[in-house]
Structures are given as structure tokens and as C-alpha cells.
Amino acid sequence: MKAPLSWLKDYIDLDGVGIEELANLLTNVGLEVESVQLVGVEKPEGKLKNKYFGLSWDKEKFVVAEVVEVNQHPNADRLTLCELNDGTGITTVLTGAPNLFPYLGKGRLEKPLKVAYAREGSTLYDGHQPGQVMTKLKKTTIRGIDSRSMICSEKELGISEEHEGIIELDADAPVGMPLVNYMGDVVYEVAILPNMARDASILGIARELSAVTGRPLCLPEGVAMEKGGAIAEKVGLEVRDAELNPRFMLGMVEGTHARKSPYWVQRRLSLAGMRPIDALVDATNYTMLEIGQPLHAFDYDLLRERSGGKPTIITRTAYAGEKITLLDGSEPQLDPQIELVTDTVGPLSIAGVMGGGETGVHAGTRSPLVESANWNFINLRKTLSKTHINSEAAYRFSRDVHPALAETALGLCLKRVREWGGGEVVQGVLDEYGKPYEDTVNRISAQDIADVLGQEISLEESTQILERLGFTCLIEGSEMVAKSPATRTDIETGIIGQRNLVEEISRVYGYERIAPKRLSDELPPQIGNPGLEAEERIRDIMVSIGLQDTLAYRQTSPEREARLFIGRKAPEALAYVRLKNPITPERTAMRRSAMATMLELLEYNAKFRPGLALFELGPVFLPVADEVLPHEALRLSIGLTGAWDVASWDRPQSKAMDFFDLKGVVEGLLDGLHLEGVKFQATGHPSFHPGKCAEVRVGEEVLGVMGELHPQVKKNYAFGQDAVLVAEFDGEALVRLSNAVFTNKAISSYPAMVEDIALIVDESVPAEDLEALIWQAGGKLLVDVKLFDVYRDARLGDGKKSLAYQLTYQAFDRTLNDKDALNIRNRIVKQTKNTFGAVLRSQQEIR
Amino acid sequence: MLEIEGKLQAELARGIEALQTVAKVESLEAWKQEFLGKSSLVMQTYGSMGKLAKEERPVIGKAVNQVKVGLEAALAEKEEGIKTASQQETFTKETLDVTLPGRTPRRGRIHPLHLTLRQIYQIFGDMGFQIYRSPEVETDDYNFTFLNIPPYHPARDMWDTFYTEKEGVVLRTHTSPGQVRVMRERVPENIRVILPGTTMRYEQLTARSEIEFIQVELLVVGKGITFADMRGTLNDFARRTFGENARTRLRPSFFPFTEPSAEMDVQCFVCGGEGCGVCKGTGWLEILGCGMVHPTVLRYGGYDPAVYSGFAAGMGIDRSTLMRYHIDDIRHFRNNDIRFLEQF
Ligand SMILES: [Zn+2]
């Protein structure tokens, strides 16, 4: 909402309040000032907290002047030479403004034309360039005639974008007066919060200023109105459903003639962001901006013609198949939810939203019929959600307008139509007020206020604040009884009503005056969040291993995730949480696969670094049958590709990572989480290389799957030669099975014995099983088993492999001797022979 | 003194002097031959001991021993000196250019938004707040209705919502649904929690606006909780985050789930309030919205608003992280460009 200062001053005396101070007052009361536009006036001095823009008009150079004669330029058809009096004498000014053509050749003008005049050397906006480009007036010669100064358009002065014609000031403008003194202004653009829609009006803003400054508010007065009377002879009114249309009023003026409104009206409308049209339309718009009640003006004669006699205005919902063409040319689909203003012939407008093109006022209107109505805002919002129409009226009605404003607005509007458009107000008004609004009444004590704020505010001070906001207050003992003003519908009753009042009191009182305190209530039970702690531990472990933490977008598309499969074909129709209004075709659903995200991250980054090691911990979204919400399953994904080491200036890049680099990372993680009983088992997975894929389990529970990306899946991404290694884990299982507390192993102070043995077994014997047996056979003196070589050779025999281990023996109570070692080794050799047919290789062959 | 004693003394002096000029290990051999070899005076003297008079023997024996020990000590010192000098030469040849770059180990880093979250967890944890998380895909009821935003309420315009194909299910537009969830879980206990998490809004993706972002919300419910408590708590938070001299201000604002509602600004930490690009010249940075929990929300949570009160506050951490590190594009956080992430 844009509020010109000159307009605010119609309702409240703001003398002595600085431009910057006023902006801060507005912000502090809840009307955040987004920008301050300077229209001619100078930027205030000092440190400014608000955003300023605009043009200042030099008092010496910009003045009110009068054009006394308009003559043809001798060498150009489209240019005129104006004889202009700027208060110091007559000068000739060259202009091309089309609105001066009518005065051509009229000789000395009977009524001189008041204009905004810029002398040589003035700095103003260039009227012929788009946007606001500063320019300085210098002497030029146009077709043989010198031009030094200018008669200004609104664009040149920074009032609006209008640059076709010059401004025609009102006749009482004093010649020679500095222009800034005559019509300099400041426009505050304020953000209207959804609960302060009543302030989407100049008077609403002035009321807030009155509350916060304590200065009285001066309300405008419209024409006196009485119900019924002559107007009832001319037009009928029927409201079918008062729920949808709580109030509908009609008033009328006869004998208007189309003409422009006074310039001060046009200027205010322009500054407030509305385009001036003519006196009739301007009167409705001006009144809407003034008090926040939208109005609509019909051409009565057109209505009469349509109906073939006395017209009747009927408000009702649309019939199926009914049609309307609106002012903006659109033809929205109508249905029986949409409330209309109609006559006996058909629709005239969509109620509270926009009028039809046929029956509105126009240049030749003699008898404007003014509608001032109130509409159910919820029904109106439903209409807007279907039709997507934006209008100033819809904006206000969709935030609920108090029905009392319909009456105030009609009186004001009729007065303006008469003043600016001429004619006489037809006696009487029609008023269907089928659902009167009862203003709420609340009782509140100083204690109630202190209970919410933690700050004592006297009942007297609270009362004054509410009264300045338009409440009617009465103190009864320790309580104040506050009746809500007949301008707002947002104050409820009961405990909520009280809270509404506390908000009104505190924001005007000033939040800054409420002294901060520290919480002093009892702490709630301290139950912690072990899940989150475990997640953060996972992050720390991954980072300590050397992997980069990432953060995934939740939104993706099934097509993107289908890249996980050969030929981009997901095995079956996967259930997704799909979006009704996706922002792009690439983000139509919530992700199901953390692996898909990881592959995209690797693909995106592969071009920037020769080696990548990333992880991501976050939810995937899995729809669950018969559940409203999906399961948000926590996933940990790991991605590796390229070399682990970074090449340096004297050392080449190491080999690209393979399955066992990934396994090492996974082992590091599981070790860090102190998971017990972890097993890796070869498995198949559509996204992985058939021979390089394992699942990780604890007992029967599968924690995750890992491996090298299937070469045919890899083709779906822009990867190079290097293998791509990915793992995806069930984060919840990791969190659940991780042990923050574990048993630390004691360290023996006796020396350890180390020896190597190699066992020849069939290829089919899994290394993991053999190692488990070694541990078992070794007994408690065996403290470490490390596989250091896997060897295959024809001499070993077909289908055989040799696994070489470094074994460490150690006791806690003595130093072991060769005999101890021999015993342990013999047990291992014997048991592995019995179970797997293992044969011990001679010692010399091993290393 | 016997003549031989004098000779031996002179031999010691001569040997030490001769050693001065020796610089190489090879030259030491010749010196050894001359002074300690078979034909040297010392060794000759030992050899001729048998011929000496009985009473002369101990005197000369002692003298020759002293000289031998002296010469050997000098030799050892010289050998050590030569060795050190030659090593020094080798060391000099091994001199590195210490300005050459080091070998970079692979270093993992925590994502910047997770860093910010951890800082917030720490600060509020110190103040007795626990962490509560709730779903990112939410029902319309929790996301709106229970927060005092019934269908078709004007306040619904405040959020551009992603709707799912399932009726009544949306992507949460804020972490506030967690308010009602935690209340329903903990009623009638006091509540002091923070609600962190990803939220989603239908907005244009630009350098300044994201469709996904992380919010942290704050909820306190108890008996006698006031606006003054809220100011105090938020001031403490601001001081812990922006430094002990951080100044804050509260402005009236509107959120359907709080009343009264406010917006808290903190004095710009970049320019100290003088006005700069980060604060767009205003000297203040908007950091959070807050207010007293609306009675309707308390009721939906199972708390009687006549007995209980509370406050809530919410902040977007993407924006504050942007400001903290002067990051030029909010999309970096979720694009995960390694060149961006590696800087943390
Ligand atoms: Zn700044």
C-alpha cells in the first residue's frame, strides 16, 4: 500500500514529525515501510534506516507557471510555442504535448493554463527514455527555435510513468510558487500484514499513526443519506443470500458529465499507484483507497436500456453455464459457488472482484449508480482460487471488510462524484443489510495484560491506546470493557479476544518498552534426542575418514531416479509422493533413493576433481499403503570415484578406487559406531556390477548394500573410465544398532609374538569363514589375525588359493615362548584341515 | 727430568699441532703412522722399556702413557670433527625448497548448513532446550489448520505451498507443525524445544530464493511464560550467535499461530549498524519471527490456554549462513558443488 503524506495529513496533523521519523513510527506499529519515495522534497539529513528514492525539485528552478497563449512552431507541425508566465515575466517555451493542441491559435487564453515549469539547469527525469534516467535541462535548438526550459509531464517529475502530455494543474495554483511547496510529497510504501488488511487504506494508516502519536484523527464526511426515497423509484434491489452478501447499498447521482477529476485527485491516485481515469471512476477508486471499501459504478441508463424499464439489481450465485465478459476482457468460467451481481437480464459483475465490460461507467455516463457492498470473504477466496483474477477490490474483500464501511464509503463516494463529476445526488439510498455485524465486546484487566507480556501497563494507558485505535472503552473496577470499532472484524471474544487486545495494546505501547527477562519456569524432563546424536556421530566419523558431507534436495523426479536401472527402466511402477504443482519437470516427486541423489552429486562434481569421496545423510520418502503420510526413512549414502589420494607435484595420482576402498570406508564407519556382528555377503542388485556387490548385515537384518556401479547403469550418467562405488544404508538401523558405549579392550604389558602362516584351501572357501575358524581355533592367546596375501598358482593345484595371515599371540600374565606358539599354530592347522581341508604351506614359501 | 720425558712432552705438543692442519679422514692415517705407528716415538719408547733402568721405568712409563692418551684423545676429537663437518656438507646438499606445496591429505568437511545447525543446537542446548523433529511431508491440518490457519484463511496467502497428489497432504512450509506434534506428545509437561528441519515453499529458484531451506523453530510452553521471557531468551540467543554486544530490536508482525507476533532484527554484524550491502543500508538484519503461542494452537496441542502460555520463534538458517560467510548464491547449499563445500 502506497500512502502519500499529503493525503495522510487530511486526517491527522503530522506537523513536526520528520520524514524518517514517520517511516520508523509506521514500521514500529506493524506497518513495515518498504520504501520511501521523495516527490520533489529533499532527502532528510542524518543516518537513514529506510530505503529512499525519487527526485527533489530545486525551489529556484521548479515553479508553478501559467501558459497564456499557445502558438504553432513555425517549422514543425507537432510542436507548439507557449507564451508562459513564471511569475518573473513572459518567456516562450517549446513543447510537443498533445494536450496543448486544443489551445492552438486561440490567441490570449481567457483562462490561463496552470503548469509545472522547469527552468534552464533543472535536473529531472528524461520523459523519452524508459525507466527513470536523470537529465539536466540545457539550451537546445529544435528546428530553428531555442529551447532552454520545459513544461513538465508527471514522468519528468517522478510522479508516474505518464509522459504523453503535460500536467494541467488546478486553476487555483499560485503562479511563481516553488513547485515543491505547492505539491511536493512523500510516498510511504508499507507492507500490509494479513491481519491488518483494514490498513490497506489511507485512513487506516492514519488511524495507526493517531494511536502511536496520540494525535487526534479527523474523519472525512460524506453526503447525508436516508434509506429509501426517490432512488427506490428508479431501481430495485434483491439480495438472495445474506450469508454470501451481508450488505448491499446503492446510491445515485444524476446529471454528471464526463470530465477529469481535479489534478490533486489525479496526483494522489497516481502516487498511490492507481491510474486516474475520469471523475466517476476516480471517485470510486479514491474512496476505496481512502477508507478501504471497494465500490463499483454502473451506468444507470445502460441498465435501464438492458432491462427495458426500471432495472432491478439482484445478487445471487451463478447459474450453470452462465457467462460474463469482464472489464479486462476475460471470460472466467462461472459455477454455482461464485457470487454475482446481476440484473433481470444476466450477470453484471463477479461480486467483489471485477465488473462486466458492458454496464460500467464510461465517457458519456450521465447517471452513475454506485454499488457499495459487503461480501463473504471465504466464498470470495474460493472464487479467486478458481478464477485467478487480481483486483484492488478482490484484494480487500478477500481479507474481510467491515459491513459498516459500505455505508461510510457510499456517502463519501456520492459526495466526490457530485463534486468532481457534477450533477446532483438522487435522494435516498437502497440498503439491504441482511446480516448485520455485531461488534465484539471484551473485558480485560491489567493483570490479564501483564500475564501475557510480563510487563505492567496501567489500565488507563491501555484504555487510551485502544480508544485511539477506535475502540469504545469503559473502565469497570479492575477491568476494562472494550467494544471493537465498526471498522474491523478481526477482534474475537473470550480468551482469543483478550489476546487480540493485548496485541493491539503492546504493539502501540512499543515492544521495545517491554523489559527482557530470563526464563524462570521449571525445566521440562530432560529426555535428549539419541537419534539425532547418533546421526551427528555418523557425520563426524565419515568426515574423520575423509568424506565430504552434503545436503540433498528432497524433490526429484521418477525419471531421474530411473537412471539407477539398466536402460533407465525402473523394474516396476514405484510409488512416489508426487507433487500436484511441481516447480519444474525435474522436480515432480519426493525422492525414494538416496543412491540416485549420490550418483547425481558424483556426476556433477566428477569434472571438478580427479577423485571424489562424498556422503549424505537424509530422508527418503516411501509411500505406505493405508497411511496418510509417507515413511520418511533415514538413509546414509556413500559415493567414491577416481583416486583417493590427491596427486602432488612429485608423486603421481594413485590408482582409482575400487570395491575395497569402499569396503574400507564402510568398515571404518561400522567400527566407529561400534556395531557388533557385522557380516558382508555377496549379493545381487540391479544397479550394481553382478560380481562386485555386497550386502552388509547384522544377524538377519540387512543394513545396506554396496558395490561398484553396474557398467550398463554407469552409461546412464556422464562418468569417465573410473569405477563408481556407491553404498546405501538404512540410517535408522545404523542409529539403532550403534553403541555409544562399548567395552574397551585391555592392553597387555607382556611382549607379543608374531608369526606368519599360509593355508591352501579351495577357491570356494570364503575368506571370512576361514578367518573366523582361525580365531576360534587360536583361543584366547591369539589376539590379532591379519590377511596379508592372497596367492594363486598352478603349483598349488587347480581351484586352490593360498591365504597368508600374520598372527599375533600375547598373554596378559606372562611372556609366551616357542612352545606356546607351536601349540596355537598346531590347533589352527588341525582345525582348518578338518573343516576346510586346509594345507599349511612351508614357512619359506610365504614371504 | 729425564731427557726422554722432555722429548715425549714435545712429541705430544707436536702431534696436537700437526693434527690442526689435518682436514680429511685420509690424511689422518699418515698422522696416525707418524705419532702412534710402530716407528713413532711413543711406540719406540714402549719398545725400549725393557732396556731402561729399573727405577726409570715407572717414571717413563707414566710419561709415555700420558702422551699416548693425550694423542689418542686429540685424534678422537679430530675424527668426530671431520665426520660432523662432512655430514654437514651432505645435509646442505639435501636442503629442500620449503615453499613447495605440501601433499594434501583427503579431508572431509561438515556441510556449512550442518555447521550452523550444530552451533544452534549447542546454544539452545546450553539454555535447556531439547531437539524435536517432525515429518517433512505433512498433513494440511498440522501445517495449517492446527496452527490457526483454517482453509481459505487470508493467512494462507503467506505461504506458497507445494501440494502432493494426495488430498490434504503438503510439503511442510515451515517447521511449525512440529509445535502441535510435540505438544500432543508431551502434554501436560513444560516444553522447551527447538524444531529444526527442511521446509519447502513454491518459489522461484534464484540466487536469493530457494524452494527448500532449513528452518529452526523454538517452542516454550509452561505456566506463566511471557513476552518478556521471549525477549530475554532471544536476546541471549542473539548475543551467543553474534557476540555479546549484539543489539536487537522487535517490530510488530503477524503470524497466525502467535499473538502478539514480532519480527526480531539484529544490528548488522558486517557494518556494525552503519549500513552496508549485506543489510541493504538499514543497519539491521532480519533474523527471526516470533510471538506468544496463539490460544487456538495451545488448544490443538492439548494445553488449556487459560492455564498455560508459551512463545515460539522461527528462523531460516540458509540466509543467516549466507550472510555469515558472504556466500553469493543460496543454491550452492544443495547443489553441493565440491569447489564450494571444500572451503569449509
Ligand atoms: Zn550492514
Characterise the protein shown here.
The complex is a heterodimer of chains A (847) and B (344). Chain A is α+β, with helices and mostly antiparallel strands and 847 residues long. Chain A folds into 6 domains: 2-55 and 186-213, Phenylalanyl-tRNA Synthetase, Chain B, domain 1, CATH 3.30.56.10; 58-183, OB fold (Dihydrolipoamide Acetyltransferase, E2P) (Beta Barrel), CATH 2.40.50.140; 231-433, Phenylalanyl-tRNA Synthetase, Chain B, domain 3, CATH 3.50.40; 441-511, Phenylalanyl-tRNA Synthetase, Chain B, domain 1 (2-Layer Sandwich), CATH 3.30.56; 530-737, 2-Layer Sandwich (BirA Bifunctional Protein, domain 2), CATH 3.30.930.10; 753-846, Ferrodoxin-fold anticodon-binding domain (Alpha-Beta Plaits), CATH 3.30.70. Chain A contains 24 helices and 39 strands. In chain A, strands 27-30-31-35-34-33-32 form a 7-stranded mixed beta sheet, sandwiched between helices. In chain A, a hairpin with a 2-residue loop joins strand 4 (62-73) and strand 5. Chain B is rod-shaped and about 130 Å long. Chain B has 344 residues and is of the alpha+beta class. Chain B folds into 2 domains: 3-94; 112-341, BirA Bifunctional Protein, domain 2. In chain B, helix 1 packs parallel to helix 4 (56-93), helix 2 runs antiparallel to helix 4 (56-93) and helix 7 packs across helix 9 (295-301). The mean pLDDT of chain B is 92. In chain B, a hairpin with a 2-residue loop joins strand 6 (248-255) and strand 7 (258-267). Chain B has a 7-stranded mixed beta sheet, sandwiched between helices. Chain B has a two-stranded antiparallel ribbon with strand order 2-3. Classes of the chains: A alpha+beta (847), B alpha+beta (344). At the A-B interface, helix 10, helix 13, helix 15, helix 16 and strand 27 of A face helix 5, strand 1, strand 2, strand 4 and strand 5 of B. The structure holds zinc ion. The site of zinc ion has 8 residues of chain B, from loops.
